[in-house]
Amino acid sequence: MASQIPPDKVNLRLILVSGKTKEFHFNPSDSVSVITQHIYDNWPEDWADEQYPPTNILRLIYQGRFLHGSVTLGGLQLPTGRTTVMHMVARETLPEPNSQSQMKKDKSGGQSNCCIVV
Q1: Quick one: pLDDT at residue 106?
Q2: Cα separation of 25 and 71, whole Å?
Q3: Helix or strand or coil: residue 105?
Q4: What is the DSSP letter of 31?
């Protein structure tokens, strides 16, 4: 299925919501915005029946997290010469990144869960 991966490139296997996949080679210095623009400009023929969203709403998901446009593959420490799997979806806005304290607060409902015994 995959061609030979150049040793200085990151091979991205992108999976759509429909389950269709396609592999692309990128430089570690390429940012998410460069990658999504490349995919948009080179929309695979076997994805022709998929919705063709505007490039500004194509989003990559890696390890369960939406990636912001300025993130590079090297910044994610993705290995060159190997395949990394990411999901690609169309979504207009990205969720705001939460700090750990905000996540803990959200899980507890923002209230203290202690009780006082007298």
Answers
A1: 47
A2: 16
A3: helix
A4: B
As a whole number of angstroms, the distance between CA 7 and CA 10 comes to: 8
Pairing of strands 10-15, 83-90: parallel
CA distances from 107 to 67, 95, 96, 98 (A): 23, 17, 16, 12
CB 53 within 8 A of CB 10: no
Q: 4: which strand partners?
A: none
Answering whether pTM is above 0.85, one says no
DSSP state of 92: S
- CA neighbours closer than 13 Å in the CB half-sphere of residue 9: 12
The DSSP symbol for 117 reads -
Element (H, E) at 37: helix 32-41
Residue 2: per-residue pLDDT? 46
Q: Which amino acid is at 22?
A: K
- pLDDT digits over 6-32, tens only? 999 999 999 998 999 999 999 999 999
| pLDDT per position as a tens digit, 27-62 | 999 999 999 999 989 989 988 888 667 777 889 999
